[in-house]
Amino acid sequence: MSIAIINSRAQIGVEAPPVHVEVHLSNGMPSFTLVGLPETAVRESKDRVRSALLTSGLSFPYKRITLSLAPADLPKDGARFDLAIALGLLAASGQIPVNTLPVLECIGELGLSGDIRPVRGVLPAALAARQAQRSLIVPRANAEEASLVSGLTIYAVDHILQLVHHFTQQQPLEPYRSNGLTDSCPPYPDLQEVQGQEAAKRALIVAAAGMHNLLLSGQPGTGKTMLASRLPGLLPMLTEAEALEVAAVQSVVSLQSLTHWPQRPFRQPHHSASGPALVGGGSKPQPGEITLAHQGVLFLDELPEFDRKVLEVLREPLEAGHIVIARANGRLKFPARFQLVAAMNPCPCGYLGDPDGRCRCTPELIARYRHKLSGPLLDRIDLHVSMAREPTSLMPQQSKSGITSQEAAAIVSQARQIQLKRQGSTNSQLATNSLHQFCTLAEADRIWLEQACERLKLSLRASHRVLKVARTLADLDAQEIIGKHHLAEALQYRFQNIN
Question: Which residues belong to any copy of the AAA+ ATPase domain (predicted)?
Answer without folding.
Answer: 210-391
